[in-house]
Amino acid sequence: MPLSEHEQRLLEQIERALVDDDPKFASSVRTGDRRLKSRRRLQIGAALVVVGFAILVGGAVAQEWLIGALGFLVAFGGAALAVLHYKVATGAVEPGPAPTSGRGPSGPARGNRGARGGRQPLKSRLEERFRRRYDQ
């Protein structure tokens, strides 16, 4: 749900006040492109997988199980990092709030509680409920 004009003006005033008050903090908080950050983390994860497998093989050649276990942990950590950032890095999912539908809780989506296909995230549903109560 987009912000109203009044809310946008207030947000811009807050941002300007923050930049005027502490420009160093404002530049560190300013969000960049999430896709670029996720691509970098995806690349780092892939590199960690390769390095982890190299350490794993090195441990097997040296017949040291501790080195092999360390290699496995490095490879597993790299794979986890890559998997966590894959969707945003490839553009499969745009970051940000999910689009809201006009249906209430009595709509057709209520019947499939187990299916997560067309449902909104919990945070979005709670925000929508709060807005409806506030508007009444």
UniProtKB/TrEMBL annotation:
Chain intervals with Basic and acidic residues compositional bias: 124-136
Coiled-coil residue windows: none
Membrane spanning residue stretches: 42-59, 65-84
The entry's keywords: Membrane, Transmembrane, Transmembrane helix
Record has Cell cycle as a keyword: no
Source superkingdom: Bacteria
Compositional bias annotation for Low complexity: 99-112
InterPro entries on file: DUF3040
Signal peptide range in chain numbering: none
One matching Pfam family: DUF3040
Chain spans, region Disordered: 93-136
Descriptive protein name: DUF3040 domain-containing protein
